[in-house]
Amino acid sequence: MAGGRRRLFFALWPDETVRAQLAALQERLPQAQGRWVHPEDLHLTLQFLGSVEPGRQACIAEAARAVQGEPFELEIDRIDFWSKPRIAWAGPEAVPRPLKRLVRMLAKKLEPCGFEPERRPYKPHVTLVRKSTPVAAMKLPEPILWAVEHFVLVESRPNGDPPHYRPVEGWPLGD
Ligand code: 2AM
Q: pLDDT tens, 38-88?
């Protein structure tokens, strides 16, 4: 990775099928008003890095390469709302162990690059609407089954028109 500072985060990036299913969930929220996440931007954050200077970008890629994860299935089975950040989101009721391990391992490998591990408990979610009006929590009648086989480093360009996010590099989980 070359160039200047970049706004980066690690995420799970859905394939086209899961992306379409997540986008369909947005249509279940017709009562919500707010800033709808562009379907091409839907993702699940693993670790937010923020604005990263060029000198640390190689360290980040090295950290990702050192992660030894395993593939897993994520069951997106609920929609909910957080009132403080005002986001409507979709996520799993149960957090798979390999996902917890992946997030923990990534944080650990990123420490030498100068990133403090997140202190708040990890709450996996796919943001559907930002600055949203309240949405009633709902269990999905048919969960979305997301077979997770890799994770990605994503660049965020929040200015201009969406999509704002672009995966820049990916790493497989397992062999
Ligand atoms: P959100 O969807 O809950 O807002 C890109 O901005 C991604 O990183 C989004 O998924 C966003 O989560 C997450 N993110 C943005 N700022 C963050 C922060 N300060 N701490 C943790 N995650 C953040």
A: 999 999 999 999 999 999 999 999 999 999 999 999 999 999 999 999 999
Q: Within 6 Å (CB) of ligand 1, which residues are found?
A: 9, 45, 48, 87, 127, 156
Q: Report long-range pairs for 116-122 (Cβ below 8 Å, ≥24 apart).
A: 118/47, 118/48, 122/95
**CA-37 nearest atom, ligand 1:** 2
Q: Top-level CATH class of 2-172?
A: alpha beta
Distance in angstroms (rounded) separating the CA atoms of residues 104 and 62: 16
Gap from CA of 48 to ligand 1 centroid (Å): 6
For the chain, give every domain's residue range.
Answer: 2-172
Cα–Cα distance, 113 to 102 (Å, whole number): 17
Q: What's the one-letter identity of residue 130?
A: R
Q: Which residues are catalytic?
A: 43, 125
d(CA 133, CA 154): 27
Ligand 1 atom 19: residue of nearest CA: 48
The CA 45 to ligand 1 mean position distance, Å, reads 7
Spatial CB neighbours of 116, under 8 Å, sequence gap ≥ 6: none
Give 60-98 as a DSSP string.
HHHHHHH-----EEEEEEEEEEETTTTEEEEE-SS--HH
pTM above 0.85, yes or no: yes
